Amino acid sequence: MHRLPPALLLLSLVACGSDEDPEVTFPTAKAELALANYKAVVNANYTDVVTSAQALQAAIDAFIAAPSAATQDAAKNAWLAARLPYGPSEAFRFYDGPIDDPTTGPEGQINAWPLDENYIDYTRDDANSGIINRVAEVPAITVEVIAKANEAAGEKAISTGYHAIEFLLWGQDDATTGAGNGKRPFTDYVAGGSAANQTRRADYLKAAAQLLVSDVQEVANAWKPGVADNFAAKFGVTASEGNAVQSAIGDLLKSLGSMAKAELSGERMTVAYKNRDQEDEHSCFSDNTSVDLLGNALGIENVWLGRYGASDGVGLDEVVAEKDAALAAKTTADVAAAVAKLRVLADLQQKSSTPLDVVIASPDGSASRTAMLDAITATKLIGDDVEKAAVALGLKIELEEPSVEL
Amino acid sequence: MIARGPLSVCALLLIACDGSDEGAASDPDERFSGGAATVFDVSRSAFAQDMPALSGDKEDDFFVGNSLFNRGWVTAPASTTQIDGLGPLFNATNCSACHFKDGRGRPPLDDSEPFTSLLLRLSIPGSDAQGGPLGDVNYGNQLQDNGILGVPAEARPRVRYTEQPGTFADGAPYSLRSPTYSFDQLAYGPLAADLQVSPRVAPAVFGLGLLEAIDEATLAALTDPDDKNGDGISGRFNHVWDVRKKALVVGRFGWKANQPSIAQQTSAAFQGDIGISSQDFPLESCTAPQTSCTAAKSGADADGVELSPAFLASVVSYMHTLAVPARRNLEHADVVRGRALFTRAGCPGCHTPKLRTGELPGFPELSNQTIRPYTDLLLHDMGPLLADGRPDFEATANEWRTPPLWGIGLVSTVNEHSFFLHDGRARGLLEAVLFHGGEAVAARDAVLAFSLDERAALVAFLESL
């Protein structure tokens, strides 16, 4: 999806095979500060991801122990709270780091989409579908069983992670009934209550929560400071080829640009906008998609500015400013604008009962659909800025095509 | 050529170079394998780029098509109504599982690995009403080694190889491995006693729009069915069923040129490989004994099919507009030498280096381009060693379509393997050459007579493509 920017294309064309960069002095000292601060940001963010996932697990255990509308709501609220730090942490993807390393990264087990609902539980047309209801084929539901079922051998029957838990808490968001999120009754978890196999459903939900906690812990551990030989200890310090600091900064720019343009603007918004498929939204059971999207944008801003919560350190903005202050300032403004546009969408969800599925289905030119288009345009711009920033720093980066591990 | 100038200079350069001959080996024109639809990317995403300067809404279509190419289909009925309907029997849940990063598939590395990007076509002797292959009564015309929950996979295929040693003229040894396929865990009764099995690895999918844009007359001029020029190479069209035209037309896509268009190839793959019905192929691929398959819920929407016409159009547009990566290292001495050896051995007799596209309505970016695909898109007898024993429309058991060679040197980067030919049996480009028989015997013998240096130079040339 992302070819070389015109300037580079021109150079490569006319230089006939020469791949020398224009001479650029790389701002190494500033970059080292930014990398150290990035690791602190990542660690702080993943610490919150783990804490909130543990709180979700506790709320789910409480719900299973005493199913009621109140305990189910508490579990749902814990899920929504857990999504708040996870969204920003997605800005740490797209450079084969701990979250999405091609062989060991658990991203596909944590946040994969679309979810194969029928693979997990009953759906509106089939009371007996899913692992939960197939007692003979899957005698016992354990963490190992659901982990193995997820993305088995090149195939994807997405059955774990945040969205599996979301489905088990909310239930299907039936597109045919228009607006409104899933309406799963808590009695699905009461022995002898609604649907069949309530105990197995409870086993599944508990196992999914436990797997989520262990997966996010694994990622967080890779970023813990002061651990010899973990990813954080090596990132920007050793490199398989070339300069480790430059390579790491290149990774961060690739990560930011890919997240902004291919993933957030493209995969998560443009596709849904264009398809007009009401449920073409990643958190469709809870109708929390717009808040998720804002979280992604906030993560991009965190990495760019080098901040998390109240702490604000040396960000990529300062590294780029060493070579091109105007470009750094423009990027900062574009990032802020994108966050603002996504906040409009999140406000529509939270304050005006207009979740993203309603936005998608609205007529062209309506206020909400225009707001989505504005958000698409604004986030796409960040990808272009980041490609320019790489050129300014003399780095070659190739932004991701939209992820295959959705 | 070394001057730097504004972007328009590039465009001028492209046009000026267009009509020139295949001149010196270092002719920079040769870098533009896809004409103006060439991209300069040597990363793992080299096959996944959109063409420069797409017209109209094609950039958006590319984006959406790309997303659908990668997106996993799920069991129906799901909340995501437009992407449900997986299977009931299937090979993969998305296009990119097999065409990973728009690149080339491979056979399993060992017995524990599933057949992810190599599929097995099945048939029995005879042909159907349209002249196509006749499927196995119990298993249909393609082995589907996955099923949704409650629908057993058809079988577990396995591959074993037999090595056959040989020597080059200079005495250097080589070994070629030939596959045999077997089936365990047959879920729907026996396979036909006279079953024909044709293995097909998922091909790379970039540059297809340019191949579709070549005029039929241009290709017809390359045919020589009766070898009137006596060069030992015939080359002929396959004629295959076009489901929209309801007629036999020239086939140009697929390993045996058994698909007439990108659109039909795409919908056929959705049906056969993922189990997704569409306008042109509205049925699920369930055979009579596969009752759980027939009984499974459909993901069809209000339009009666699982893949909406709009989605299909986006994917087809995406297929049209995936760009071709540029050649590399043209000036390298080995590449220059290998290029001459490629010609001397007679490879261009089928692997046509340069073609001109015609006018493809709606696609100005594909029209009137000088491209370097290294294919004539025609069927050739490749000899008994490569034969699959399974006729496909007019293609005989021994015949295969010349595959394009553009981008072949980047397969190891994009797909991290070097398995070539229709079933991935060749472990590297030189082995692939040595497997050539039939009409390519003379070319293969020429390569067998090459010295070690010459063989290395030939491979260096192929890797520059």
Describe what this molecule looks like in 3D.
- The complex is a heterodimer of chains A (406) and B (465).
- With 406 residues, chain A is mainly α.
- Chain A has two domains: 187 residues, A middle domain of Talin 1, CATH 1.20.1420; 171 residues.
- Chain A contains 15 helices and two strands.
- In chain A, a hairpin with a 2-residue loop joins strand 1 and strand 2.
- In chain A, helix 3 runs parallel beside helix 11, helix 7 runs antiparallel to helix 8 and helix 11 runs antiparallel to helix 13.
- Chain A starts with 5 loop residues before the first helix and ends in a 14-residue tail after the last helix.
- By secondary structure, chain B is of the alpha+beta class.
- Chain B has one domain.
- Chain B contains 13 helices and 17 strands.
- In chain B, the strands form eight sheets. A three-stranded antiparallel sheet of chain B has the order 4-3-8, with no helix packed on it. A two-stranded parallel sheet of chain B has the order 1-11.
- In chain B, strand 9 and strand 10 form a beta hairpin.
- The longest helix of chain B is centred in the N-terminal third of the chain and has 13 residues.
- Chain B is globular and about 60 Å long.
- Chain B starts with 6 loop residues before the first helix and ends with a helix.
- The N terminus of chain B is likely disordered.
- At the A-B interface, helix 1, helix 5 and helix 10 of A face helix 1 and helix 2 of B.
Primary descriptors:
heterodimer; A: 406 residues; mainly alpha; A middle domain of Talin 1; 2 domains; 1% strand; globular; disordered N terminus; disordered C terminus; B: 465 residues; alpha+beta; two-stranded parallel ribbon; 13 helices
Helix content of chain B: 10-25%
Shape of chain B: globular
Question: Kindly, what is the distance between the CA atoms of the first and last residues of chain B, rounded to a whole number of angstroms?
Answer: 21 Å
Shape of chain A: globular
SSE string of chain B, helix = H, strand = E? Answer: HEHEHEEEEEEHHEEHHHEHEEEEHEEHHH
Class derived from helix and strand content of chain A: mainly alpha
Strand sequence of the main sheet of chain A, in spatial order? 1-2
End-to-end C-alpha gap of chain A: 16 Å
Strand order of the largest sheet of chain B: 4-3-8
Q: Pairing-aware structural class of the strands and helices of chain B?
A: alpha+beta
Q: How much helix, percentage-wise, in residues of chain A?
A: 55-70%
Taken together, the total number of domains of chain B comes to 1
Overall pLDDT score of chain B: 92
Radius of gyration of chain A: 22 Å
Radius of gyration of chain B from CA coordinates: 22 Å
Number of helices of chain B: 13
Instruction: Domain count of chain A, please report it.
Output: 2
Number of strands of chain A: 2
Query: How would a textbook summarize the main sheet of chain B?
Result: 3 strands, antiparallel
Give me the CATH architecture of the largest domain in chain A, please.
Up-down Bundle
